[in-house]
Each structure stands twice: as C-alpha cells, then as structure tokens.
Amino acid sequence: MEYILAPSILAADFTKLGEEIRLTEENGAAWLHFDVMDGMFVPSISFGMPVLKSIRHATGQFMDAHLMVQDPIRYVEAFQEAGADGVTVHLEACPDVKAALDKIHACGMKAGLSICPETPAEEVEGYLDDVEMILIMCVHPGFGGQKFIPESLEKIRAVRQMVREKGLDLDIQVDGGVYLTNVREVLDAGANVIVAGSAVFNGDPQENTKKFMEIFKSYE
Ligand SMILES: O=C(CO)[C@H](O)[C@H](O)COP(=O)(O)O
Ligand SMILES: [Fe+2]
Fold first, then answer.
1. Confidence bin at 220 (pLDDT 50/70/90)
2. H or E element: which one contains 111?
3. Where in the sequence is the active site (predicted)?
4. Which of 13, 34, 35 to mutate to test the pocket of ligand 1 (most atoms within 8 A of CB)?
5. Cα separation, 121 vs 39, whole angstroms
6. pLDDT for the residue numbered 202
7. Is pTM beyond 0.90 here?
8. Considering every ligand atom, which ligand is closest to the CA of 66?
9. Which residues are registered as beta bridge partners of 32?
10. How large is the average pLDDT for residues 15-21?
C-alpha cells in the first residue's frame, strides 16, 4: 500500500504560502489538500478556484480538492479547469451522490467520497465501485485545529474491511486532528492518505513533513 501525506494549506501562513508548499513537496508530501468551504454545508468560508489555480503553477503535487460545499456537482468542472487532480465530495451534501462521482470522472479526475463523523461507515458501501478514495472525517468539517474524534478509528477499520471484502484497493483518507502523536493509530486502523494541517504548518513545515515521512517508511 502507498502511504501519502496531504498537507492541508488551511493551516499555512498565507504570507509565505509558496515557500511553505515547496517545503512540503521537497520533503516528500506527494499531495496537497485544498479545503473548500461554502458557508452553507459548513459554517465557515475558506477559498476557491482562483486560489487553487494560482497554487497549481507553484507545485507538482497532486491537487486534492476537498469540497465542503452544498450540491458540489455545480463546481466539479470549475475545479478541474482550475487544476484539481482529485475532487472529494461529501455524501451528506449531494442530492445525487452517484451523479456527482460520475461527473468527477467525466472531468478526468479521481473521485473521493467523504463522510462526516455522525454518518455511519455503511453509508459508503454502495459507492465503493464508483470512487478511488473514501475520506473519513475525524472532526466535524468546517475548521482546522480541532481534536480528533476517537470513534473515527472504528470507522476507518470498518471501511478498510468493506474495501478488502470487495477485493478493491481504494485509498482511505483521514482528515482532522491527525498529528505525529496519533498518526500511527490511524495507519494501523487502515488509512493510507493522511491529511494534516496544523501538524504540518504549525511550527516547521520541513521538519514536520520529514517526521511524517519517516513514520510512513516504517509501514512500507
Ligand atoms: O477538512 C478540514 C476541516 O474541515 C481540514 O482538512 C482539517 O481540519 C485539517 O486540519 P487539521 O489537521 O488542523 O485538523
Ligand atoms: Fe479537509
């Protein structure tokens, strides 16, 4: 299994964003996580297509767009045009989940499906053939820097088990409250794509990225 670090720029210092992104890329973070919030599906508003488009030119990392947006199918094409490589939508935000996932594929991107902490793991079962990745939120979406919800570990295990039983090899991404101190627990539970905002950008992004990559090496 491939272990991937996806630093979330939500926690970056935007006065030196390009430099901070470069430090994560040079030290092994293969993806960059881009949190889009619409003030409707989640209470906060973050950033959107123009910011992604600008960053696209600054990095070769896989651009992982996490859309915390109501009825996200409306924006799939725009994110592809801005330079996203993968788009993840929330099951709870889609009037027609399958249509949103199909649209992501039709736009030539990898499709991810995310569930909030209160949504049971079983809800994703019917969509496993339609995605490349399941994103398990380990905090209530909307803000960075929150505390990891411990019950998420059981959900990660359940989804990894479902994926195995179907003979699939999907990425399982975890997002929210993941730090160097608890990342082994989520890896042990079956996650392989780790989103980390505060844990990468608070402090030294170079050293923090290196430390995550060292832990991943011990799993490969
Ligand atoms: O989707 C998100 C919030 O809704 C963020 O990706 C997540 O919170 C990452 O931040 P941190 O690692 O600081 O918890
Ligand atoms: Fe996110």
1. confident
2. strand 110-115
3. 35, 175
4. 35
5. 25
6. 98
7. yes
8. 2
9. 63
10. 98
Residue list, ligand 1 pocket, CB within 6 Å: 8, 10-11, 33, 35, 66, 68, 139, 141-146, 175-178, 195-199
Amino acid letter, residue 121: A
pLDDT reported for residue 20: 98
Catalytic residue among 38, 64, 171, 175: 175
The residue type found at 169 is D
Residue 178 in contact with residue 185, Cβ under 8 Å? no
Place of tokens 């399982």: 172
User: In angstroms, rounded to a whole number, what is the distance separating the alpha carbons of residues 76 and 86?
Assistant: 10
CATH number attached to the domain at 4-217: 3.20.20.70
Task: Please say if 35 is a catalytic residue.
Answer: yes
36 is written with which tokens? 């889009």
C-alpha distances in Å from residue 127, one per residue of 98, 103, 179: 7, 14, 29
Which tokens in the block code for residue 88?
């993840």
123 has a pLDDT exceeding 90: yes
96 is catalytic: no
**Mean pLDDT in residue range 16-25:** 98
Q: Around Cβ 13, how many Cβ atoms within 10 Å?
A: 12
Distance 195 CA to ligand 1 centre (A): 7
Q: Counting beta carbons within 10 angstroms of the beta carbon of residue 192, is it exposed (0 to 12), middle (13 to 18) or buried (19 or more)?
A: buried
